[in-house]
Write a structure and sequence with these properties.
The protein has an eight-stranded mixed β-sheet. A two-stranded antiparallel sheet has the order 2-8. The chain is globular. It is built from five helices and ten strands. The protein is about 25% helix and about 30% strand. It has about 180 residues and is an alpha/beta fold.
């Protein structure tokens, strides 16, 4: 079964977006970006909400149009990944994407059963929050940025019960960003 991964940049105080929705503080440097390129190679599918889908459309430009070789590689990999978009307002999507045809739990169950190696990643705070509440996330990957935002969109939604995790990997980048990889216990 494919694991479901939730990976985002997060402030030291636990936010993935600031009080006004700003995410500019989370942009990766070159070393961290190359690490992201390595990580997306393992993906067999990507689940996204509308807002993140629209932000990521920039990567649908012809891969060779990017000036940086790492960006070219990311774009090529990204474009090949099948994406499932959850939106109540979109009536069409582009690239290697489709609008979700079922509920979140059903889509996740279908994707987890696909043959071969792979993983399912989820992007977007709202969609990830839904999957967390349904206990559908197998692995959490946090890129902890050395910034305190004081408020905004939390990485984890409020929960009624504890979520036990096991730290399986950690790495510190030259930019002082600390990567933590946790698996659900």
């Amino acid at each position: 079964m494919w694991p479901v991964i939730y990976s985002m940049s997060v402030s030291v105080d636990g936010f993935i977006a600031g009080p006004g929705g700003e995410i500019d503080w989370g942009n990766p440097d070159a070393e961290e970006f190359r690490f992201h390129v390595q990580q997306i190679r393992e993906l067999g599918a990507y689940l996204s909400g509308r807002r993140l889908y629209e932000e990521m459309l920039v990567w649908e430009a012809p891969a060779d149009s990017w000036p940086d070789p790492d960006f070219v590689e990311f774009a090529r990999i990204w474009q090949a990944i099948p994406k499932v978009i959850f939106s109540a307002t979109l009536d069409h999507v582009q690239g290697n994407a489709r609008l979700a045809s079922g509920d979140v739990a059903g889509e996740v169950a279908r994707l987890k059963e696909l043959p071969g190696p792979g993983a399912v990643a989820v992007g977007g705070a709202g969609l990830a929050s839904t999957l967390i509440k349904l206990d559908l996330i197998d692995e959490y990957r946090l890129f902890v940025k050395p910034v305190v935002l004081g408020g905004g969109t939390s990485y984890f939604p409020p929960r009624d019960q504890r979520l036990s995790l096991e730290l399986t990997e950690t790495r510190t980048f030259g930019s002082r960003v600390v990567y933590h990889r946790y698996q659900r216990v």
